[in-house]
Amino acid sequence: MGEFEVHRVRFFGLVPAGVRCLAYQRNGARLALARTDGAVEIYNFAANYFQEKVIPGNEARSVEALCWGAGDRLFGAGLGGEITEYDLSRLCVAHSVDGGGGPIWTMAANSSGTQLAIGCEDGSIKLFEVVPGGIQFERNMDRRQGRILCLSWHPSDTYIAAGSIDAIHVFNVSSGQTVQGIMVSYHMQKVKRKCIVWSIAVLSSGTVVTSDSFGRVQFWDWEQGTLQESHTVSTSAVLSLSVSEKEDSIIVGTSTGATYQFQLLPVKTGSLEKRWVRTKPFQHHTHDVRAVVHSSTALISGGLDAQLVIRPLMEKVQKKGYDAALRKFTFPHRRLVCCARKARLLLFQFSQHLELWRLGSTDKTGKDGEVLPLCRMPEHLVQLKSKGPEHIYCSCVSPCGSWVAYSTASRFHLYQVQYKGNSISVKKVPKVPKLVLPAYQLQFSADSGSLFIASAQGSVHVLQLLEPGGCKHLHTFWPPSGCPEAVYLLAVSADGHWLAAVGGDWAIHVYNLKCFKHHCTVPTYNCAVTALAIHPVTNNLVIAYSDQQLFEFSIPEKQYTAWSRMVQNSGLHKVWLERDSPITHITFNPKNPSHILLHDMYMFCILDKSLPLPDNSALLMNQSTLKQLPETARQWQLHAFKICKKFQPLLFADLLDENSLVMVERPIMDFKTQLPLPIQQKKFGT
Amino acid sequence: SPPSSEDEAPEEVSFGAAREVVETERKLMGEAARRHQELLKEKRRRRQELFVEQKVRSPLTARFAPPPGPAAAPRPTNCPLPAETEAAARGRAAGAGRRAALTGFTSLYLTRPKGNYTAVRLKDRSLTGLHQELAKDFLNAQLYGPDANRVQANEFFSLENKKDPVKKAAVQFVDKSWG
């Protein structure tokens, strides 16, 4: 199949931001997630937990609470004191309203999603009404002393329970008056710390559940003002809790990274009396778990270790097997690395800057598995810092390495990079045409002569790049039947004839670049596209979907290829379909037209279309077995999928030339040291 | 023959007259001393004025100089300047215009020593920012404060290695700044 020299790159210093809030949309099966850097992401559970939308963060924006309102509207609030509505079609902030109470610590919607209650730094709880086009201040509740750190509506929306420092307050919603105040403190000798109530929930029965900084989960009868049950689950704070819809199960997250499940179980089998029992402990995270969600089938937790963990509950899952598997997501489901093949450059996208690196080189050869010494080290050529608080949406470098472009929420930047011997100069390209911003995806043409900009409402702009350093807007493509969502993926053919674009509605449109017309639309599939690429020789469009399906569509013939139909008929291997992460990049080898190179977070694969497809009884990852077999015996075992799992976690993989590959890895340990400090774990004998 | 006055008794002066003479002498001495003191004071005042005038020539002090006159109450020397509003400063600047005409006036305000304060524009440091910082400080103190039992990455991951089913060596970072 081939021998490759692999540039194993580990100098992409990406540090993903921790997970701060989670909000589950029950009817849509979508999860909204907010990170500590202000980024908001949407995961589509039905599409195999694909991260379908990302709204990049902002230095000035802090998100402390996230909730869904009526009509699938997403609201966030933070220490900046504002309630923000997010536009999920245009992936930006729709509008903001000042809460009027200083920093906002918590926010919750009522059961119908028509009212938002916020808990503020000044001790007040304010009610806002969700109206078309925005939110409107309704009224204040009775103001207490001490910042409101958490609040929860009773399912009937008649009262709200709020947690503060050393106290819980219960308010009647219609009158706004405090109807109960409960002191929550820790009566142990010599302990002078205040008891912080980090999270709260109200059950239909009227029981109020709280979690506090002393590691306790407590159940209160708010009317009597008495403590019903108290469970100490940890020596460190319990930061988050979530109750299931049926109110028979609770998940709590602690500072140590441990999560615990509480279940309402009968005292004795068959008895009517029930009590809350701490059942399952989990240790999926290494750092504080500040957000948890209890969905109908799974326990979901997000930690400051940047991981999102989805733990299906065995008894709730219908189909055993892969549906019941634990899912862990650390890195984004999109490319943050761009490769200029000819120039052997890599462009790394960080949240507020870009790094351009030149790969090193070696003049030695070796055997399989050997590490070759470098004669020239990789060089950090340019660092482009984005001015202002906005984070970067997308970036790209041209194949020749002379053009670099990136976009933030309100600004688009295009630079020319000139290499004169050993020195590098970066020049900003002036008079870039005014476009509707932000750009969601950028792609240079194969000849580095044009730049394609993915924009809102399914549109793609074509910018012609001119020497010595200018650009001109050539054309804008629009999908024929309109699209409310933005384009998030682009692919260009090597001959510069075709452009494929995927919008948030998952429709793939192919445009003709020679006559600037819409060419065709790929038949709709009920899953999100995670990667697509156009073959340089055949102009076949290869598509990877989030359910791990692969399709090959012939652009000139406007139909699926015979190979694609064969794949669909025989079906892909079970192990292939049960992979945890989506394919984020597809590329080709011009010297071997029947090869498709693709990768996900944990594997790199060369798909040889000329070889037979494996059936479920065959071993999918058979490279090591094949190596041990003699040449003659190998051909009976060969199948199309050649998978290598040596390089992980894999952020990017590409073919540099016919004999070399580049693999960008980001070992988890390399960034864990740069996260906020974890809690000390004690163990006997250490 | 020359009269020898040494043989004669001194002149007889009455007690009252002698007392009067002493008193007048004392008064004269006192007045002289006072005049001397006042002269010194005057000298000091003139020197002070000179220094003051030199300071007044700088436009910044002219702007922040309090209005002269007996109505102006003396301020303590360590009063922090950020507490003043821009409007009050403007008022004082108007008063400073009158400064040049007055002489023999000393003000404590303009001679106070350098305080430990910084003058900032309220427009640059928003109230929201201040509140946000306070809130973040509270959060940091609760989660990462002295009671939080936090540990460096090195120690944490070494312990993880020891707790693993397959025990591994403790973690030692090549880059010491990683903790």
UniProtKB/TrEMBL annotation, chain A:
Coiled coil: none
Gene3D superfamilies: YVTN repeat-like/Quinoprotein amine dehydrogenase
SMART domains: WD40
GO molecular function: RNA binding
An annotated GO cellular component: 90S preribosome
Taxonomic superkingdom: Eukaryota
SUPFAM superfamilies membership: Quinoprotein alcohol dehydrogenase-like
Gene Ontology BP term (one): maturation of SSU-rRNA from tricistronic rRNA transcript (SSU-rRNA, 5.8S rRNA, LSU-rRNA)
Entries under InterPro entries matching the protein: Quinoprotein_ADH-like_sf, UTP4, WD40/YVTN_repeat-like_dom_sf, WD40_rpt
Full protein name: UTP4 protein
Organism, scientific name: Stercorarius parasiticus (Parasitic jaeger)
Gene name per UniProt: Utp4
Automatic annotation (TrEMBL), chain B:
GO cellular component terms listed in the entry, alphabetical order: nucleolus
Pro residues bias: start-end ranges: 65-79
Top-rank taxon, per record: Eukaryota
Organism in which the protein naturally occurs: Stercorarius parasiticus
Gene from which this protein is expressed: Nol7
GO terms, molecular function: RNA binding
Signal peptide: none
Domain U3 small nucleolar RNA-associated protein NOL7 C-terminal residue range list: 117-179
Protein name: NOL7 protein
Region (Disordered): 61-82
InterPro entries linked to this entry: NOL7_C (IPR012579)
Highest classification ranks of the organism: Eukaryota, Metazoa, Chordata, Craniata, Vertebrata
